Amino acid sequence: MKYCLEKLLIKIIDFLGCGKIEKVSTRLNSAVFVVYKFNNHCEKIIPFFQNYPLQGIKSIDFIDFCKIAYLMKNKIYLTSKGIE
Fold it and tell me: Which single residue of 3, 44, 68, 70 has CA 20 to 30 Å from 62?
């Protein structure tokens, strides 16, 4: 199971051209895909999920994620209106 998960995550990293695998120390045989660079979120992750939309409740989370990325990219969060 662990090998299959890691193999899948490596394919995702290769496909998107960003991210890395981190082991979850509190769970046996568990790992997650993470992306730390803000630029990669804006240029790779968001466009991918705009082309291939998430289904269900996660689609609402994605909309919020995009709004926050927009505020950060345009530094609107530094204004009083952006804080609201």
Answer: 3
Same domain, 8 and 46: no
- Regarding whether 41 and 14 lie in a shared domain, the answer is no
- Alpha-carbon distance values, 49 to 6, 61, 78, 79 (Å): 21, 12, 27, 28
The helix or strand, by DSSP H or E, that contains position 34, with its residue range, turns out to be strand 31-34
Range of the domain at 22: 1-35
Model confidence over 28-79: pLDDT tens digits?
Answer: 778 889 999 999 999 999 999 999 999 999 999 999 999 999 999 998 878 8
Tell whether pTM > 0.90. no
